[in-house]
Amino acid sequence: MAFMVKSMVGGQLKNLTGGLGGEEKGDGEKSPAEAQGMTREEYEEYQKQLVEEKMERDAQFTQRKAERATLRTHFRDKYRLPKNETDDSQIQLAGGDVELPKELAKMIEQDNEEEEEKDSVIGQLTSIPNLDLDSLKDKAQATLEDLKQSAEKCSVM
Predict the structure, then answer these.
(1) What is the pTM of this model?
(2) pLDDT by residue (tens digit) across 16-53?
(3) Burial of 38 by CB count in 10 Å (0-12 exposed, 13-18 middle, 19+ buried)?
């Protein structure tokens, strides 16, 4: 409210006097350092720190993007999907040699182990519902024993 009154009355008052009075330095005309309550050197140091922090954040962000791109590339290779050029470019922006975080590497290793188990014959058998491997194993051994006994009794051999 005071600002509006000052701008309306002050502008008309300057027009009336012709702007002859001593000109005051308004709040809007302070240098950025004075506005922050710092000296010029402190302000410059502060600006340098801001720039350095921004560069560090950008570098970390680029690294994270490259890690994600590496993970996507891994899954594309695993499932034989087409490659993505943006992922390759993100990996190269980060320096080309990107390692996955330990947690992600563990997850991928566990996935690979699970798939190897599923790919094996026993893994396929365990995925069949209502199948008792112990009874199946006992039956197979009993059949093998019967074959051995019948082979011993065979007169042809």
Answers:
(1) 0.48
(2) 665 555 455 455 567 777 777 888 888 899 999 999 99
(3) middle
